[in-house]
Structure formats: structure tokens, C-alpha cells
Fold this protein.
Amino acid sequence: MNSWSEMFQQQPIVSKMITNSIKKSRISHAYLIYGDKGTGKVELAQLLAKSIFCKNKQGYEPCQTCLDCKRINSGNHPDLHKIEPDGASIKTEQIAHLKKEFNYTGLESNKKVYIIEHADKMTDNAANRLLKFLEEPSQETTAILLTENSQSLLATIRSRCQILSTRPLNSKQLELKLMETGITEANARILTTFTRNLAEALEKSNDTWFAQARKLVVQLVEMLQNNRDEVPIFVHTQWMPHFKEKNQLQEGLDLLLVWFRDVIHYHMDDPSSIVFLHQMEKLEQASMYWSIQDITKHLQTIMEAKRKLEQNVHPQLVIEQLTLQIQR
């Protein structure tokens, strides 16, 4: 994320709040930026640091080409200090070293910026040491605390920071981020249907259970079309053994909902909304087998099955009734 104009697309509210303070020269002595992994917290901190140090910025937008901007990009700016967990936690010694740096004048100006990633992982002693810094802020110093869990920080630390909450990524933003990690567009599209959290999506992308669940959904739909007599055996020997827990069965039905919605999108010639991108041939076959009216009924039937599961109706009975109703 190289500019505020780009960041506005991802985090408009937080970006507006920070850039307004930059324009008015009212940068806070301490910020607490919290939100899910992948929502741009580190990028926000980097941009804020650039806007503080850049001598050629236009309004609030750093130039990206001066020595200060380049040093921040490379992690070598002498007056920008970063702290990350040393192992499982941020330790007292790390904050003590930070305090030592606080006492020095900036090497190239009087300004200093500190970014503490995963601030919630500070030990109690480390957090209390940091609190002392925040209680006596220097006018030329800006501390930026980043966390996914702001409630784990001391209330006294939170009270001394301007708190900024990043919002979850929308599906398209998350899809692009997943593709940047090497995940295919088809898989990214499915993952973003089930979560807006980057960490959860990445975990799900490596989940063999979820991959198999997707295959079983496609197999079930094919059997409902072509091998109807074998559906009860399939449900008993493959579907139920895989979807053992109620939450797993709900996820299986969610995948089935996505599949049938895709068939409607295929009927309507709306490929941009299709989730099962790698199953276009099978979606075409399904669209020839079921009309939009049929699909609409099936979607209602699946939703009713989900409600029955929540009411603790026997899971296998629910699935058997569901498949019978779809076959009518």
C-alpha cells in the first residue's frame, strides 16, 4: 500500500481520520490501530510514518521517492523504531530499549516514531513500562500500537491512545489478497464466501476437510441429477461420515446453497457472481436439468434443513429428507 489514495479504498474511515489530523498538524502522540489480520494495520502505520517524516509530501500524501520514504520502505529509517514479539511475547527488555531510544534526540530531526506490532502480546511488566512512556508524551514522538485484540491491552494504555478500528475486508479486497499469496481465483472466490478474515481464509485454504467437503457437494449434486437411486447410499457412506458435527453439516449445507445459487447465476448469464468457477461445465449441466423455479424451491428446502438442524432434528434424517425433496 503505497499511498493514502490506495488506503482510502481499503480503509476509508480510518484513512480519513488520520489524514485529517495530518492536514491540521494535529497528529496524536499515540495511536492504537486494531482489527483483523490483513486489514492494513501495518500499511496504515507505515503511511503515517512516511507522512510524518517526508519533507516533500503534497498535503498528507508522502512523495514515496525521497530518502525518508525509501528508508521507511526498506526498514532502515534511523528515527523509526519497530518492536515485534520476541518469541511468544514482547518482553520488558524490548520496551526498556525503546525507553533508551526515547531519551535520544532524533538523528535527522526531532521527530521519532515507534510502531509496536501485536501490542496485546506485551508482558505485564512490558505494558506497565510502556504506560510510563505514554503518560509523559514528547511532542515530537508518535507511538503506533497495532493489535488484533485491543481488549487484551491495559485500559490505561487504551485511554492514552487515539483508537482507530479497521473494518473487515470486503469480498473483492480479500479475494485479491488471497490471490497475491498464490491462491487461485476459483479457490479465493469460495474462501471469501465463508469468511472476511484473511487469517481464517488462509487457514481454510490448507484445510483438507474443507477441500473434501467441496468435492462431496459436487458429487451429491451430480448424483441427484444422474444416479438418484444411489443417493441414500452416498449419504450414509460418504456424506454423513465426513460431516460428523452439527457445525460441519451446516457448512456442508452452506456449500450446497452456494452451488445452487451459482446455477441461478449461470441461468442469468452472470459469471462474475459465480463462486464455483472451476465447475462451469457441471453448472451448465445443472442449469439444463433444473429451471430457475426448481432452484428457488431447492434453496428454500436447504434453508429449512438448516433450521431443522438448529432445532436438533436427527442429522441423517434431515439430509435424507432434503435429498428426497430435491429429487421430487
